[in-house]
Amino acid sequence: MTERIEGHGGELALAALRAHGVREMFTLSGGHVFPLYDAAYKTDFPIYDVRHEQSAVFAAEAVAKLQRRPGLAVLTAGPGVTNGISGMTSAFFNASPVLVLGGRAPAFRWGSGSLQEMDHLPLVAPVTKHAETVFSTDDIPRAVGAALHAALTPHRGPAFLDFPLETVFSVADVELPSVTGVDPIAPDPEEVGRAALLIAGAQRPVIIAGSDVYAGDAVAALREAAEALQVPVFTNGMGRGSLPPEHPLAFAKARRAALSGADVVVVVGTPLDFRLSFGDFGDAKVVHIVDAPSQRATHVQPAVAPAGDLRLILSALADHSGDRADHTDWIADLRVAEDAAKARDAAEMAAETDPIRPARIYGELRRVLAPDAITIGDGGDFVSYAGRYLEPAQPGTWLDPGPYGCLGTGMGYAMGARVSHPDRQICVLMGDGAAGFSLMDVESLVRQKLPVVIVVGNNGIWGLEKHPMRAMYGYDVAADLQPELRYDTVVSALGGAGETVAKAADLGPALQRAFDSGVPYLVNVLTDPTDAYPRSSNLA
Ligand SMILES: Cc1ncc(C[n+]2csc(CCOP(=O)(O)OP(=O)(O)O)c2C)c(N)n1
Ligand SMILES: [Mg+2]
């Protein structure tokens, strides 16, 4: 059954968006996109608006990451779109299915110098999977469907459409095309078989599971494969929490021991990038399991790289019926290293120092965070510590900026997380430097009744840059911020609340007040500026 619909371009777009499971838009106003607002307003489709377009795209990305469905940002022509480009690029690096709809100056007088007249496509094409200008109103539903299909097809990613003014303001009568689902990519069984043989025959195998495992809904299959083949599992990105921390095969701290001792390293659903020594694990053989052939590494040659639906591949590994080596001793050795590192971390997280060190903040946070809390990292060293000391208990609860490493995700991700999970704790872990990029969007959160807790690690510096610059040059420039700045009173001025904490003993009660407050609340923790995250290796 196809549906006929008559309406202006905004109404046609919205009908197609709804049909594809889009449930809200994030935006910042501009006349070029009014018809999209008109369509939403008349049909009670939720609109969340922000104070900078980057927050709109980051919010859409958080929805996409957390809910594994398309997120939508609507940006006005010209500067609206260009302000969204870092968000689109982050979504591209993170394989997040985000659709950005842009306004565009009228086509009929293109070249005459209309307001905000620019061709967005050459800018966004390199960071999107599909970028198209829709020149006729009756073509809008098809274009929306094609863009979302591209965004949702593994390897997922953002898509972009823009509508010339007359396209989106004009009326047409069209048949809504039916929604075509995304077919799973079938892996090559021979490659999967070779991977299974390598892992089963390995003496000391390790799995590292990343974001695509969660995005591909393959968490259960990952666990089955790990249990069937008895392989220790480490995680990164949205893969964190795939195995509950108490699972006998769940590891986080013993990475260095695991990767230096392993004879087979299985990397699933994450690229062989700087976070993983570019896929160079010494003598260990590498199995790289990717969700699409495009994700096979070109800079290294893994022993085998099965490509396709991660559920299918991991389930096939779980079903491997041949002989397998015994990994009991290997797992026990890693557990010793893991427990020793955990004991060291526990001591750091309890340390009563003055000034406060970031570790203590995470020690206190662990007491108040519920297992399903969403934690969001936006900053430098302060977020590296979060990665080290917080252990997500469930998958889909940890949002970091991903390998593009863009500061400024904070309030946008927080908005998307709050909209996705109205009943959960949402906690943003923010460097004081990072706060500068998005803190004004606390106003958007206050006004739209979207409470979140923001914990600022306030060391008065761009720590992740200042310490390395000093180490390299013996001096530093452009790395200082105002010490002890009252980011909490900024949030109060914007209609939220907050407080500054300078003593470790005051942290716990302050965090409790923050989560109890029901408003955007910033806990401004004055931290030790001499404390630098140890960066001898990003595998530590
Ligand atoms: C948009 C953007 N600009 C600059 C950087 C470079 N950068 C990475 S970490 C960092 C310092 C962050 O400082 P802060 O948020 O205060 O955290 P800290 O390291 O002090 O804990 C900078 C400037 C970046 N990653 N993204
Ligand atoms: Mg800082």
Automatic annotation (TrEMBL):
Annotated TM spans: none
Residue ranges of domain Thiamine pyrophosphate enzyme central in the record: 194-317
Span of domain Thiamine pyrophosphate enzyme TPP-binding: 378-525
Obligatory cofactor(s): thiamine diphosphate
GO molecular function: acetolactate synthase activity
Keyword field contains Transferase: yes
Domain Thiamine pyrophosphate enzyme N-terminal TPP-binding: start-end pairs: 9-121
Record CDD domains: TPP_BZL_OCoD_HPCL, TPP_PYR_POX_like
Keywords assigned by UniProt, alphabetized: Thiamine pyrophosphate, Transferase
Record bears the keyword Transferase: yes
Family matches, as PANTHER family: 2-HYDROXYACYL-COA LYASE 2 (PTHR18968:SF166), THIAMINE PYROPHOSPHATE ENZYMES (PTHR18968)
Record protein name field: Acetolactate synthase
Organism (species): Micromonospora parva
